[in-house]
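ABC transporter ATP-binding protein, Candidatus Pelethenecus faecipullorum. Tokens?
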Amino acid sequence: MKKTNKVLFPFLKFAYRLYPLYFYILLLYALVSSATTIFGAYTISLIIEALETKLYTEAVVRGIWLVGIEIVLSFLTKLTNYWLQVHRQKMEEKINQTIAEKIMMFPFSYLEDPYYLELKKNAQMGINNMGAIYSLLTNSAKAISSVFSLIGLGAVIVLFDPILLVVLAAGILLNLLLVVASVKTQVRIYQKLLPINYQYGYYMDTLMNDKNSKDFRLQSIYRLMMDKFVCLGKETNRYFIQVQTKFALFSSLIYLTQYLQMAFVYIFVGINTIVKRLPVAQFSLTVSAAISFTEGVSSLISASGDFIRSIEYIKPMVELMAVSPQNHPGKRKLEEIETITFDHVTFRYPNTTQDILKDVSFTVGKNEKISIVGLNGAGKTTIVKLICGLYEPSEGQLKINGIPLFEYDYASYIAKISTVFQDFKLFNYSISENIRPGISEEEAEAISVQVGIADKIASLPNRWQSSISKSYDPNGVELSGGQTQKIAIARALAKSSDLLILDEPTSALDPLAEAEIYEHFNELAEHKTALYISHRMSSSVFCDKILVLADGKVQDFDTHQHLMEKTDGLYYRLFKLQSKNYEYSSE
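Tokens:
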């Protein structure tokens, strides 16, 4: 029970804060619905009472009034239920939006932490696949309505004979124990199913992804993928069959106890009516109340089972919402990035012991163009992540204009940075929206010329309004890797920033397109500080200085000319080794 409360109350508090109107409508629905149920128990008995006393006219009048009231209550029940469904949908949208925003505010390190990745997947599965939010809200309405009905009906039964209520309560307790056992069994199977379902989802997404079709055809991997997919599907079905089998068993036992209860009600009330010479109207009222009470309890127990199950599914979401957002306590507004200083910075990723950067120190001045080179794993991208404030140094300090980075207001700092990462993402919007929402076509045109994508855009039927990808727009365009990379570079340039970070920005470009980018590099990054990471050493020639990293340490930080004079240095060896690939030999 304590575990349930730890999930339920935080969720209800969270949901109420987001959309309080839903809860007021829920209360109104519960009152109207319970009034309809209680009134229904009285309807027949009131008519029978008039007939027993031979007041036939009154019986007809009562019947007309009762039917009219029944119609009104039924209409109000359906109306409030309609309002409830409409506002439940709106509340779900609010909750999903808030969860998405919460994940966006996660400390970046959490997105590379297995625990939080697992938590996020569990939350998404509970919400999307299991319909936990829908089930929890819907069953809340059923449960509250049933409770109100049971209070009114219970009063009628107690007035007839308290023993009847005690016997019904015993049956209720038995049913409740069966429901709890059923839910625990289903949740236990669900926990076993989770990892299999993740794998199944991965294979489903991979097999359905059009971008993988070439590899499937050419690498002979399709059959392997299908075999694993089918195997996981069978495993998933096996668990679902277990769930349904257990559910059917427990449901049968619950229905059996309910039928026994109803049989007892008829026998007990019938005997009491005969022995005590009670009116037929009293018999009708008590039986109707007892049956409605039993049905209400059944509804409550059913809702409670779904309720408990939903709480179990929604637990990861509640835990997710309790995670502290990325902590950037700085208040200082940043006007301009003038210098970036690594002051004896050592860094290791969370939950690891290996130092990725070791006592790194260097300073980048305003408008300097810096190339960062080194072998794979040297720490190049890690330096970029630190500069972007995605991680904090484990030791030492990263300073902006001589002040520790996290003393600045993060929003004002990040507004001064534009990036192109290796794994950049373009979205299924128009080219214009991908480059910069709200940017004028003239500005976008100028940037597209600089990065060499203008001719391609001009050739498209919808030009700047062409959607990237056909996923949501049949008239969308599929661009090559090099073309998407140019748009990503254009997006970075369109942002009014002081610092431009390019991490392997030309890896998908052909040599001519790459040479064109390099040729205009200083023009593209004019009035900006630029950090450039590339395995293509020719890019370093256009930079003011080159930061050479080896095994997480700064091996050198100098100009291309000076580094080429150090023939025993890593930079010289890398540059010469790569330049041989571009030399022609004649026989």
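The domain at 330-416+497-587 is CATH 3.40.50.300 (Rossmann fold).
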